[in-house]
């Protein structure tokens, strides 16, 4: 498995979901888990670590609430950026949703952004 290097110690006093939450958070903060990195699916990570899928799901939910992970539906779960990167992605998502609601084509939406940024 590529991506984060995670492990769970079944004998530790710290619950498994908290071990995962802490490790992912630390790796994202240190940069060893870069913004935009796609995380394994809940089931895949649970299978690799030998723990229940609900344990991984809980850790992912808490990391999403903390702003560490960003779940994008069927596209998957990704390491969120921080600061400017996170704001820019949120603005891009909002723009994409708005131009879609307005019925603009992808090409027209991109052309508008290029004009706004001063591109030809």
Provide the fold topology.
Blueprint: H1 16-30, H2 42-49, H3 53-65, E1 69-71, E2 77-79, H4 84-102, H5 106-116
Antiparallel strand pairs: 1-2
Helix pairs in contact: 1-3, 2-3
Explain how this protein is built.
The chain is mainly α and 120 residues long. The chain folds into two domains: 16-79, Winged helix-like DNA-binding domain superfamily/Winged helix DNA-binding domain (Arc Repressor Mutant, subunit A, Orthogonal Bundle), CATH 1.10.10; 84-116, no CATH class. Helices cover 55% and strands 5% of the residues. The chain is built from five helices and two strands; from the N terminus they run αααββαα. It has helices at 16-30, 42-49, 53-65, 84-102, 106-116, and strands at 69-71, 77-79. A two-stranded antiparallel ribbon has the order 1-2. Helix 1 (16-30) crosses helix 3 (53-65). The termini are far apart. 19% of the residues are buried. The mean pLDDT is 88.
